[in-house]
C-alpha cells in the first residue's frame, strides 16, 4: 500500500525533520505550509514523489481543498502530522485579542480542521494514523505563555477524545508534547537559563522529536497516547 502523509507545518522545524525521516522510509509527502515558497524549497531537497502546497489551517474550505489536491496527485491520505503552530509569547495582560485568536486558530482550531478532513478520507479507506504536535507547556504551563499553553492544552483533550471516536475504525490518534526544541519559535528564548530546568541540560533537536512522531505513526497498536 502506498504510504501518503500530509504534513501541515512541514516546511520547517519539527515538521521538516519528520518529512526528512519519512522520506527515507519511502513515504510520499505533501509538505503544507502558509508560505508556499518555503514549502517548495523543503520539497526540492526531499527528492521525487512529493509535493508542496499552501494552506491557512484556520480556514476549513482551504484545508478541505488542500487534502483533495493531495489525493488527486499522491493518492489517499493515510497519515497526517500536524506540526503547524504559532506563538506570541507575553504576559496575558499585554496580549492582544488578535494574538489570542491567532494562536487558538492555528494551534487548536487548525488541528481540529485538518483532522476532520483527513478522518473523512481515512474512514473511506478503512484506516490511518494521526500525530499532533503539542508542547510540554500544554501540560505544565509556563509563565508568559498562558495563551500558547491553553492552545496546546486543548490539543491534549482533543487528541485523546478523537482517538476514542475513531479507534474502532482502525484510525489511531496520538500526540507528542516536546519540551524546548531548537526551532525558529524558540530562537528568542534565553537558553542558558532554561537549560537548568531540563534534566538533560540541553534543548532538544527537531530530528530527535521526529523519531517519536514516526514511531507513533507506524505503531500498529498505540493510540490516545501523549508522549513527551
UniProtKB/TrEMBL annotation:
<dbReference type="InterPro" id="IPR036291">
    <property type="entry name" value="NAD(P)-bd_dom_sf"/>
</dbReference>
<keyword id="KW-0276">Fatty acid metabolism</keyword>
<dbReference type="GO" id="GO:0008753">
    <property type="term" value="F:NADPH dehydrogenase (quinone) activity"/>
</dbReference>
<dbReference type="GO" id="GO:0044598">
    <property type="term" value="P:doxorubicin metabolic process"/>
</dbReference>
<keyword id="KW-0444">Lipid biosynthesis</keyword>
<dbReference type="InterPro" id="IPR002347">
    <property type="entry name" value="SDR_fam"/>
</dbReference>
<protein>
    <recommendedName>
        <fullName>3-ketoacyl-[acyl-carrier-protein] reductase beta subunit</fullName>
    </recommendedName>
</protein>
<dbReference type="GO" id="GO:0051290">
    <property type="term" value="P:protein heterotetramerization"/>
</dbReference>
<dbReference type="GO" id="GO:0048038">
    <property type="term" value="F:quinone binding"/>
</dbReference>
<keyword id="KW-0496">Mitochondrion</keyword>
<comment type="pathway">
    <text>Lipid metabolism; fatty acid biosynthesis.</text>
</comment>
<comment type="similarity">
    <text>Belongs to the short-chain dehydrogenases/reductases (SDR) family.</text>
</comment>
<dbReference type="GO" id="GO:1990204">
    <property type="term" value="C:oxidoreductase complex"/>
</dbReference>
<dbReference type="GO" id="GO:0051289">
    <property type="term" value="P:protein homotetramerization"/>
</dbReference>
<dbReference type="GO" id="GO:0005759">
    <property type="term" value="C:mitochondrial matrix"/>
</dbReference>
<dbReference type="GO" id="GO:0004316">
    <property type="term" value="F:3-oxoacyl-[acyl-carrier-protein] reductase (NADPH) activity"/>
</dbReference>
<feature type="domain" description="Ketoreductase">
    <location>
        <begin position="3"/>
        <end position="184"/>
    </location>
</feature>
<keyword id="KW-0560">Oxidoreductase</keyword>
<dbReference type="InterPro" id="IPR057326">
    <property type="entry name" value="KR_dom"/>
</dbReference>
<keyword id="KW-0275">Fatty acid biosynthesis</keyword>
<dbReference type="GO" id="GO:0044597">
    <property type="term" value="P:daunorubicin metabolic process"/>
</dbReference>
<keyword id="KW-0520">NAD</keyword>
<keyword id="KW-0521">NADP</keyword>
<dbReference type="GO" id="GO:0070402">
    <property type="term" value="F:NADPH binding"/>
</dbReference>
<dbReference type="Pfam" id="PF00106">
    <property type="entry name" value="adh_short"/>
</dbReference>
<dbReference type="GO" id="GO:0006633">
    <property type="term" value="P:fatty acid biosynthetic process"/>
</dbReference>
<dbReference type="InterPro" id="IPR020904">
    <property type="entry name" value="Sc_DH/Rdtase_CS"/>
</dbReference>
<keyword id="KW-0443">Lipid metabolism</keyword>
Amino acid at each position: 500500500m502506498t504510504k501518503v502523509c500530509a504534513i501541515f507545518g512541514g516546511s520547517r522545524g519539527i515538521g521538516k525533520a519528520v518529512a526528512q525521516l519519512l522520506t527515507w522510509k519511502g513515504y510520499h509527502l505533501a509538505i503544507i505550509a502558509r508560505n508556499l515558497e518555503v514549502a517548495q524549497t523543503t520539497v526540492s531537497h526531499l527528492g521525487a514523489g512529493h509535493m508542496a502546497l499552501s494552506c491557512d489551517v484556520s480556514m476549513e474550505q482551504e484545508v478541505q481543498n488542500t487534502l483533495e489536491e493531495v489525493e488527486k496527485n499522491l493518492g489517499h491520505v493515510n497519515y497526517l502530522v500536524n506540526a503547524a503552530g504559532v506563538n506570541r509569547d507575553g504576559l496575558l495582560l499585554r496580549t492582544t485579542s488578535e494574538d489570542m485568536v491567532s494562536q487558538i486558530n492555528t494551534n487548536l482550531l487548525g488541528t481540529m480542521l485538518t483532522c476532520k478532513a483527513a478522518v473523512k478520507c481515512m474512514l473511506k479507506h478503512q484506516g490511518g494514523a494521526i500525530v499532533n504536535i503539542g508542547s510540554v507547556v500544554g501540560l505544565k504551563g509556563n509563565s508568559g505563555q498562558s495563551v500558547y499553553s491553553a492552545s496546546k492544552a486543548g490539543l491534549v483533550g482533543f487528541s485523546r477524545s478523537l482517538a476514542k471516536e475513531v479507534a474502532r475504525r482502525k484510525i489511531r490518534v496520538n500526540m507528542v508534547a516536546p519540551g524546548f526544541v531548537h526551532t525558529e519559535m524558540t530562537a528568542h528564548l534565553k537558553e542558558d537559563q532554561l537549560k537548568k530546568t531540563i534534566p538533560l541540560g540541553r534543548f532538544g533537536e527537531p530530528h530527535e522529536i521526529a523519531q517519536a512522531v514516526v514511531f507513533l505513526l507506524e505503531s500498529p497498536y498505540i493510540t490516545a497516547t501523549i508522549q513527551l
